[in-house]
Amino acid sequence: MSKKTEKQTDLGLRQFIKDLGYLSGGAALLATTPWLQSFTPEKAKEIQSEKARIALIGTGSRGQYHIHNLLPMKHAEIVALCDIYAPNLKEAARLCPKAKKYTDYRKMLESPDIDGVVIATPLNWHAPMVIDALSAGKHVFCEKSMALTMDQCKAIYDASRKTDKVLYFCMQRLFDEKYIKGMQMIHSGLIGDVVGLRCHWFRNHDWRRPVPSAALERQINWRLYRQSSAGLMTELASHQLEVCNWAMHRIPRSVVGLGDIVHWKDGREVYDSVSLTYRYGNGVKITYESLISNKYNGMEDQVLGSKGTMNLATGMYFLEGEDASANSGIEQLLSQIGNKVFAAVPAAGSSWRPETQKAYKPHYIVEGKYHINDGLSMIGAVKDGSDEILSAFCQACITGEKGKDIVEEAYCATMLCLLGNQAMEEQRKIDFPDEYKIPYMKFE
Amino acid sequence: MKEIIISAKRVKKELTWLMICFGIAFLMNITAIILYHTPWVEAFTQMGYVVTITLCLYLLLWVIRLVCALFGSLWKRNAK
């Protein structure tokens, strides 16, 4: 790579961390985002002249997205590529001509010239590949979600406790500026007590990819089959449930939900419509909904507080009483007097009046330019934290410093997704099983 | 045609009533600003509403005073 195209892709976030007050004590920052401890501007200086030798397993769309993020990084070098699907491997090799090509990941893990492995494969392959890579003495960065089953998640968690190697999962919201700053605002009490969480992800797309031959259907459209995918929950909800836990500083105790194949009746096995309610110990609930046959509502992560609402996905917050459609004080007063005089609501009083949604005055979590993920891309959004978390991983490959709480956050989020699937499948309330609880989890 | 003469006293009295109405309307605006946490600049920017409320109050007051005067004259006629 030419010197001209090289850049420190994460300088923005590092500066942001500095601005948030990390260097002047930064206790508040560390309380909400302990995984950033190893990602300060000072640490970047420590690794200036070194490069992490990275191998990729899985060179499909998401794998190539990571390649594009890795290529400009000063402190990373792609040395190996592995895939069993030849067209993807060929395309990835075109992007990284110097990288050695493999079709067997175990063979690749034997190479001593690899520091870290980036895994971007179908979900059912996460557990064996992560565990094999850690056993082979490699640092590992794996796509979300953690694994296909609860047992596999627990096995990965246990493996991460035993190893001295670094393990990252691509929970990119943990490195997204607007989420970090938004969480600081929530935890400082800006929106009052958190009284509810409302997350949804709506798309209008069949989730299918073109298949060159019928024999490759399950391999290419792996997201649609239960053997390799847990559907909308692990593909989309995992990010959002992680955000809810981050805001609440705890884990839900139970979940109920319903899932169906409503629209895309094309032989797929996973739901195309899910609706769930997670309940925390203090009664606060996450209302989660995802549908891939209507995109009107888009993707949102809303934290509802007694004094305001934080919409982390759009990078905006709204304060109660700041109704943007109104109206000066005198107009509001006259309107209230008018309501009292003319609006005859028998018996129940004003609580019976319908309250249609009003536009609130928006405030921006981060001032200036920032990126909003419209949730429509199946591969990844621009500047949504994915490049920063990958950069942090490459840095960790050099320093050997583990990312604090990242495995735990990924474990909690994935377990909630899988419990949600179980609740929908069995159509009953599921309490968090004791055998899968870890010390990191706080339920009260 | 009969000439109507409005005395200075009468003008002063009406102006006093108008000022009272304006004071009430202005206080309503200030109360609304405090009550709904709206910007203090509304004390001036919403002057149109204040003037309108002033005129409405004055009109209302005028009607009340007219009714009172009518009742008063009826009372006096009955007393005679």
Structure description:
The complex is a heterodimer of chains A (444) and B (80). By secondary structure, chain A is of the alpha/beta class. Chain A has a domain at 3-174 and 383-402: Rossmann fold, CATH 3.40.50. Chain A contains 14 helices and 15 strands. Chain A has helices at 11-19, 27-32, 41-46, 61-70, 86-95, 105-109, 126-135, 150-162, 177-187, 217-220, 232-248, 329-342, 386-399, 406-426, and strands at 52-57, 76-82, 100-102, 116-119, 139-142, 167-169, 194-202, 254-260, 273-279, 285-291, 299-305, 308-311, 316-323, 360-364, 430-431. Chain A is globular, with a radius of gyration of 23 Å. Chain B has 3 helices and no strands. The chains are: A alpha/beta (444), B mainly alpha (80). Chains A and B meet through helix 12 of A and helix 1 and helix 3 of B.
What's the helix count of chain B? 3
Helix content of chain B: over 70%
Shape descriptor of chain A reads globular
Radius of gyration of chain B: 18 Å
Q: What do the pLDDT scores of chain A average to?
A: 89
The named CATH superfamily of the domain at 3-174 and 383-402 in chain A: NAD(P)-binding Rossmann-like Domain
CATH fold label of the domain at 3-174 and 383-402 in chain A: Rossmann fold
- Beta strand count of chain B: 0
SS strand fraction of chain A: 15-25%
Strand content of chain B: under 5%
Largest interface summary: A-B, 8 and 16 residues
The residue fraction in helices of chain A comes out at 25-40%
Secondary structure: number of strands of chain A? 15
Strands of the widest sheet of chain A, in order across it, are 14-13-12-11-7-10-9-8-15
**Helix-strand pattern of chain A:** HHHEHEHEHEHEHEHEHHEEEEEEHEHHE
Note the total helix count of chain A: 14
The largest pleated sheet of chain A is described as:
9 strands, mixed
